[in-house]
Design a protein that fits this description.
Elements lengths: L6 H22 L3 E4 L2 E4 H24 L4 H20 L3 H23 L4 H6 L7 H28 L2 H21 L2 H6 L11
Antiparallel strand pairs: 1-2
Helix pairs in contact: 1-2, 1-7, 2-3, 3-4, 4-6, 6-7
Length: 202
């Protein structure tokens, strides 16, 4: 059974590791560390530290709520795999690819559901946002396109801009984009809101 925690604790557990990554990178970005005879840039060292911090944050969420979303689990797996590859191969490109793969995976999953005439968002979030089925389908299509757009944008940023620019984008740009996306869905939420007469009788 899922347990509720305060919004402040939830936000700290979800965004704390990301903010910590940003702060650590800004502190160590110009330093080079020699470990076992190999030189590592600050970005790689910060990535190596971020992986266990993120996993500890997820473990804390599980202990407090007894629930982790599928997106959190997939994100954790990709962070471990691609963050680990970046550290192991001393190549920051792998970690920068991670957001692209996350958004492609979830955008693709939503696309499969749409092709089957289903909204998988509706199945996992129905209790959070009471919408009619048509509203869920429209929202799912928009989020699918939004995810594909974020994947493309991440590729453009990390391939054409400096590491520091990508870190700013990853920390603040993606978060702001997601926030603004849902702000602009206000009309959809209002138009397709589930009326009391539409709710199933108990």
């Amino acid at each position: 059974m899922t347990k509720q925690i305060s919004p402040g604790v939830k936000a700290a557990l979800e965004y704390g590791p990301i903010i910590g990554f940003f702060a650590a990178y800004m502190w160590l970005k110009d330093r080079v560390f020699e470990i076992a005879g190999t030189e590592y840039q600050g970005f790689i060292v910060v990535t190596a530290c971020f992986i266990p911090v993120f996993l500890l944050s997820m473990a804390a969420q599980w202990i407090l709520t007894r629930h982790l979303s599928l997106m959190q689990i997939v994100t954790a797996v990709l962070i471990v795999v691609f963050g680990g590859l970046s550290v192991w191969l001393n190549d920051e490109r792998f970690f920068k690819m991670k957001p692209t793969l996350i958004y492609l995976l979830f955008g693709g999953a939503l696309a499969v559901g749409i092709m089957r005439g289903e909204s998988w968002l509706e199945k996992v979030m129905e209790g959070m946002m009471p919408l009619r089925h048509e509203g869920w389908m429209l929202l799912t299509k928009r989020i699918m396109l939004f995810f594909f757009g974020l994947a493309a944008l991440n590729e453009i940023i990390w391939r054409t801009q400096t590491t520091e620019t990508w870190v700013y984008f990853k920390t603040f740009g993606l978060t702001a984009a997601i926030f603004l996306f849902f702000i602009f869905q206000g009309k959809l939420f209002k138009e397709y809101a589930l009326e009391e007469s539409d709710e199933p009788a108990e």
